[in-house]
Input
Amino acid sequence: GANGRAAAARLCSGAAGSSLLRHLLFKLRASGPLTVAEYMREALTNPAQGYYTRRGGIGESGDFVTSPELSQVFGELIGIWYISEWIAAGKPKAFQLVELGPGRGSLTDDILRVFKQLASLLSKCDISIHLVEVSPRLSEIQAQMLTGGKVQSSPRDDTVYMKGISKTGIPISWYRDIQDVPQGYSFYLAHEFFDALPIHKFQRTEKGWREVLVDEDPEVPDQLRFVLAPSSTPAMQNFIQPEETREHVEVCPEAGVLIQRLAHRLEKDGGAALIADYGHDGTKTDTFRGFRNHKPHDVLKAPGMADLTADVDFSYLRKMTQGRTATLGPIKQREFLKNMGIDLRLQVLLQNSRDTATQEQLRHSYDMLMNPKKMGDCFNFFALLPHHRLTHPDQKDDLQPRAPLVPVAGFSELSLK
Output
């Protein structure tokens, strides 16, 4: 039964961690040091022993807690953001909500609740949900949460590997890659998605830039260490900007490719993309971190057993849109949620909750989301929007007064009245 499986999993987890280490050591001995990106990719998504593929440690018992796990308010406000963009676009007849790396599905669940509450507003709109998820384990959890487990699996070669209908009657499809998601007017959401994509690390030395690699430690048996590449590497030639002033730089090429795809889609089909993650605007240097049981964990120890992340460099994402779309932010989570009206929403929920335990929980999660020392300042919101959303088509006649553009919710003081 499930308990036996859990016990077996616990017994094997030590062995599984070390078998990934053995696999990596074998690789290192066979073909030399790995880039940090290759190491991170193996540790997180190796089909047999990767951290996400094997377990995906979200929630109180896992290795990290995400905002939607804390508070329904977070997801509701994001749902409102999409609806306000839908209204600003003139209420298109249909939209797809596409979430990248949906975790347990809590965020989509909260957004669907908002869509249901605003059913009269959305009644003429054809809505569908598209989830991009590589972890079979997490997609099961998402299906359970969003559909009550009523899903059909597709044949292996099908780009849609699972389909279902949400509890609120909206079709949901699962994909392994964003490229498989159908084109069309879409709202994209990436919450704590970009931070888990593999990064390359570079260090400035007297001899110029060198890539940081992962190798076996000659002093300590079966242990890994960081080394500098003796000479130039392909990644170094491709990803270091000539104007770079930092001493140490992390670059995530996969994030760049993904942003290009999003920008291309938004330019072609319209919509909006909202990215929420911890990150910086091209100022930070070494942010590669590991987490295990909610505590910091050495990134090179027990690969596959810990969550590995790096702060998102929003300046790099902005650069990679290549001007195809407008970008807004990054803006601190605290400011974004304040602009979205979190304070009013909290008051309403506090008034509607009968017991002190619920009120305590609401205040606690509000503090986690908004406190500058907790998630308030380290989390950022960043948006991609088609250019026409922010700039007026050139009017030939200057005498005509320009209609004011609808401000973008969350990124400006004005929120939905």
Remarks:
- The mean pLDDT is 90.
